[in-house]
Write a structure and sequence with these properties.
The structure holds two protein chains of two kinds.
Chain A: E1 12-13, E2 20-25, E3 31-32, E4 39-40, E5 45-50, E6 54-58, E7 71-78, E8 84-96, E9 99-104, E10 108-112, E11 117-123, E12 127-132, E13 135-138, E14 141-144, E15 147-153, E16 160-161, E17 173-181, H1 183-191, E18 196-201, H2 204-219, E19 228-234, H3 242-251, E20 255-259, E21 264-267, E22 281-284, E23 293-305, E24 309-318, E25 323-327, E26 331-334
Parallel strand pairs in A: 1-26, 15-17, 16-17, 17-18, 18-19
Antiparallel strand pairs in A: 2-12, 3-5, 4-11, 5-10, 6-9, 7-8, 8-9, 11-12, 13-21, 14-19, 15-20, 20-21, 22-23, 22-26, 23-24, 24-25
Chain B: E1 7-13, E2 17-26, E3 29-39, H1 44-58, H2 60-65, E4 86-90, E5 96-101, H3 104-115, E6 120-125, H4 131-139, E7 145-150, H5 156-175, E8 180-185, E9 204-207, H6 217-227, H7 233-248, E10 252-257, E11 262-268, E12 277-283, H8 295-302, H9 311-323, H10 332-351, E13 363-367, H11 369-372, H12 376-386, E14 391-398, H13 403-407, H14 412-426, E15 427-435, E16 444-451, E17 456-462, E18 466-469, E19 476-488, E20 494-503, E21 509-512, H15 524-538
Parallel strand pairs in B: 1-4, 5-6, 5-7, 7-8, 8-9, 10-13, 13-14, 15-21
Antiparallel strand pairs in B: 1-2, 2-3, 10-11, 11-12, 14-15, 16-17, 16-19, 18-21, 19-20
Helix pairs in contact in B: 4-5, 7-14, 8-9, 8-10, 10-12
The chains are: A mainly beta, B alpha/beta.
Chain lengths: 335, 544
């Protein structure tokens, strides 16, 4: 074939997403501080999450007509000037035997918007959805909470990071680590004030250890700022994809955010002309050539592979000039 | 000339795989012209273009005869497949049902019913969960619908908690009016507390109580009905299983293992004494690649893996399988898929134990992307390893994923006609599995004489062994078994001698003389060695 229309056989991975609707989960008792249609700026508090939510039973005067999900205000007593005021008492859940069950708590944690945007939906007890200003790069999973910081490349596409590679000068940054990182480095980075890490792969053991550490940290009285790990590819060791690395290089030094739902890096850099890979650029995402990149040469038909398995394959020219025949399922391209 | 199409395409768009096929009319019958399966990320249009291009290259005149425009000069730009009539079904991610009941005892059958009726579940009872946690679960953004149930009439230990439970669910219903609420069993009496159903955008459904076996069928059927879209592939499989049973007049079992769930459909044609029967189960929890592989999932897969691995490493591989189901499908990747298929199949059977009452079917049909990536002998062995059911069944594969699309044809007569035409094309014969039970371990079991059309093959049988007798697809034979001990052979009863009609296939005749149920060695290395030996037994030429 003279053209590359057979490239449609290679699964496409979306490089840049826009718009990005970031969802922040709420639990009963949490208080949304924004309304639908409201614009929020970076760092603006959008909700208060209760650390110690519990149920209380209250009698509601017959003069009011409460509904499930409404906020309940209680008498806050007299202020310094002798003026009585009310304070938020919690969220009404349901009525039972003439009394309302109220979700309330004493220790609220503010939830700050990691990105600027417009509030699309507020569902008390469920979630707030914010349409972010800017674009996003989707990962496969984000661990931790939403965060924000200056993007900084800690390693090249094939590099890894050890605890000794961290210093306090990196505080406030989101680090791009090429290949892989361990839980010890992740927890040390959090302790040093680093806001997040972007990595190609994170092994399940490191993931479990980090999540346990994160849960302990979240339960502590004095919490560190929100911190997140964004995994771009999966659990195996592999280099960061070239097209992603090119974008990260362009964004280095810019303020970016990591959100958990959807798992993505969000940035607002309209002035940057983001690099787009050539149409025939392909990357190997499985098998013996995992992480290698090259150019699409064409389909190779059904081939017999190890284990007497027949799969549709394609021929690619790798970055070192050699030609390889790779199962189509092992390839991806970026669009 | 008429305007009636002489060809149409079938599309089965799953979470991991898109399967497309071209069906054409030849000599007044519908025939399968060609099919292919690709990663679903490729999309149905590109997959169809690719198929048409392959057919064009193999037989340039065929498309012209069928009135189908193939890609011009190999250009796969979507123009060629645009006008093709399509029969398309999809597999969508299973919705999540939040289930609540007053007691754990009342909750268990509700969860069991939902888990085999196409729902992912989260569940809590008032006995073990406080109202705040329960409200959080019901309000959670990932919940799609709510099932509140009680036994009918409510048991003594339920009655005290039902009032508060109904108030809690009703309040959630006020806050999230778009969510369907199902009130099952004794909970239906609380309908008045849920206000005017007309003011809700979600449905308010009254359902029968959960039950075991046939008694639970009405609730299971209702839950299944509430999950599906019109072109749901898994419900199509159920309808197609029923039609296939009718067309070939045999008891049929369809087993689908998918990326995000599994299906089991048992169908029986009508007889003089019994009406036709279909029992369909959709089990989202039995998918090949669970979103979050916990220790239980990892252990189930590890038990069938021939590659030495620890839990962490295997979890990594399962996560990779989830993220990119078509990647790394050879070598160790094949082992992972075979082991995961074992685990998924075992989960499917565990969720549908009540189907055991239907007995061994005459024909087992497997379908789903994972099977097409496995050599046929391993498909047959996987079934033999997990479906430990004494009897004799023919094994086949829906290689072109046609059953789902055909099951979506709304008109029964048309569906039957299409299936009757395609019956010989859509099922690839894998062979016949014969599994006696009751053999005494560690000694010769008897003799097998296979009387084929031209030859007779005699094989000595030993208990604990897997015996493969090559028998090509399309060939039938009579397998004459002479056992030393009295054995059970499913519907054929007990005895020492059996003459079984067997059909050939890609895996031949597989006689499984291993224990029923199967016992695997406890030690991991011994287990791997044993599994390798079984695989080598059915795949001559491979290393044990």
């Amino acid at each position: 074939m003279t053209d590359r229309t057979d490239l449609v056989m290679v699964p496409t991975r979306r490089l840049i997403e826009s718009p990005v609707d970031a969802v922040f989960a709420l639990a009963p008792g949490d208080r949304a501080l924004v309304d639908v249609g409201e614009s929020v700026v970076v760092g603006a508090p959008i909700a208060e999450r209760l650390r110690d939510a519990h149920l209380e039973e209250i009698a509601v005067p017959s003069s009011v007509d409460p509904v499930p999900g409404a906020r309940w205000s209680r008498d806050g007593g007299s202020g310094p000037a002798g003026v009585r005021h009310t304070e938020d008492g919690g969220e009404l859940l349901f009525t039972w035997r003439g009394k309302w069950r109220l979700a309330t708590g004493d220790v609220p944690d503010p939830l700050e918007a990691p990105v600027a945007g417009i509030v699309r939906e507020v569902l008390p007890g469920t979630s707030i959805t914010l349409r972010a200003t800017g674009q996003g790069i989707r990962g496969v999973v984000a661990l931790g909470g939403p965060t924000r910081g200056k993007l900084r490349l800690a390693t090249g596409a094939s590099g890894g990071l050890r605890p000794g590679g961290l210093d306090v000068g990196l505080a406030g940054t989101i680090l791009v680590v090429g290949t892989r990182i361990d839980a010890e480095t992740l927890t040390r980075a959090r302790a040093m004030g680093i806001r997040g890490v972007i990595v190609a792969g994170l092994a399940s053991k490191e993931r479990r250890d980090f999540l346990a550490s994160e849960a302990r940290q979240r339960a502590a009285l004095h919490r560190l700022p929100s911190y997140a790990v964004l995994i771009m590819d999966g659990a195996n060791r592999r280099p960061m994809a070239g097209p992603l690395m090119d974008i990260f290089e362009m964004l280095a030094g810019s303020e970016v955010a990591i959100i958990g739902d959807p798992p993505a890096l969000v940035f607002d850099a309209p002035e940057l002309a983001l690099p787009v890979p050539p149409a025939d650029f392909v990357r190997v995402r499985g098998g013996a050539l995992l992480g290698r990149e090259g150019r699409w040469l064409g389909t190779a038909g059904a081939r017999r592979f190890d284990g007497a398995v027949y799969l549709d394959a394609g021929r690619i020219r790798l970055d070192d000039g050699s030609v390889a025949t790779v199962a189509l399922g092992d390839l991806e391209r970026f669009g | 000339m008429t305007n009636e199409p002489r060809a149409f395409a079938t599309v089965d768009l799953g979470a991991a795989t898109v399967s497309v096929a071209l069906i054409g009319k030849q000599a007044r019958s519908w025939r399968l012209i060609g099919s292919c399966a690709l990663p679903s990320a490729v999309g149905p249009d590109a997959a169809l273009e690719s198929l048409l291009e392959r057919i064009r290259l193999a037989d340039p005149d065929r498309l012209t005869e069928l009135g189908v425009d193939g890609p011009t000069d190999g250009r796969m730009d979507g123009s060629a497949s645009a006008d093709l009539v399509r029969l398309e079904v999809r597999t969508t991610p299973a919705p999540t049902l939040a289930i609540v009941a007053a007691t754990e005892r009342a909750l268990a059958p509700l969860v069991a019913a939902a888990e085999r009726s196409g729902w992912r579940t989260v569940a809590a009872s008032a006995q073990t969960t406080d109202p705040l946690a329960m409200t959080r679960m019901l309000l959670d953004g990932s919940t799609d619908a709510i099932l509140a149930g009680a036994t009918d009439p409510p048991a003594a230990d339920e009655r005290g908690a039902l009032g508060e439970l109904a108030a809690l669910v009703a309040a959630v219903g006020v806050r999230r009016p778009e969510r369907s609420i199902i009130l099952a069993g004794g909970m239906a009496e609380r309908l008045a507390e849920f206000g005017d159903p007309a003011r809700r955008s979600g449905e308010l459904v009254l359902a029968p109580a959960a039950g075991v076996g046939a008694a639970g069928a009405p609730l299971r059927d209702l839950l299944l009905e509430l999950t599906g879209s019109r072109n749901d592939a898994r419900r199509g499989l159920g309808v197609a299983a029923s039609t296939l049973a009718e067309v070939i007049d045999r008891r049929v079992e369809v087993i689908e293992i998918g990326f995000d769930g599994a299906t089991r459909a048992v169908a029986r044609p009508a007889t003089a004494s019994e009406p036709a029967m279909l029992d369909l189960a959709v089990v989202p929890g039995a998918g090949l690649a669970p979103a979050e592989p916990d220790d239980e999932v990892v252990d189930r897969v590890l038990a069938w893996s021939t590659v030495a691995s620890d839990r962490h490493r295997l979890r990594d591989r399962l996560r990779e399988l989830r993220i990119a189901p078509w990647a790394d499908a050879t070598g160790d990747g094949l082992d992972l898929r075979v082991a995961a298929a074992h685990a998924s199949l075992a989960q499917t059977l565990a969720a549908t134990t009540d189907m055991a009452a239907h007995g061994a079917p005459d024909l087992i049909v497997v379908t789903g992307g994972v099977w097409s990536a496995m050599p046929p002998s391993l498909v047959a062995l996987t079934l033999a390893d997990i479906v430990r059911r004494p009897g004799a069944s023919q094994l086949t594969m829906d290689h072109a994923a046609l059953l789902g699309p055909i099951g979506s044809i709304p008109d029964a007569a048309e569906r039957r006609a299409v299936l009757a035409d395609l019956a010989d094309d859509l099922l690839v014969p894998l062979g016949t599995l014969v599994m006696p039970a009751g053999l005494r371990a560690g000694r010769p079991a008897g003799q097998l004489v296979v009387h084929g059309a031209d030859t007779t093959v005699t094989t000595e049988l030993a208990s604990g062994a897997l015996v493969v007798v090559p028998l090509a697809a399309g060939n039938g034979a009579v397998a004459d078994f002479r056992f030393r001990d009295v054995v059970r052979l499913g519907g054929r009863g007990r005895g020492r001698g059996f003459a079984v009609d067997v059909a050939g296939g890609l895996a031949g005749l597989l006689v499984d003389l291993r224990d029923v149920p199967l016992r695997l060695p406890d030690r991991a290395d011994s287990r791997r060695e044993q599994i390798r030996a079984w695989q080598a037994a059915v795949r001559p030429g491979t290393r044990a």
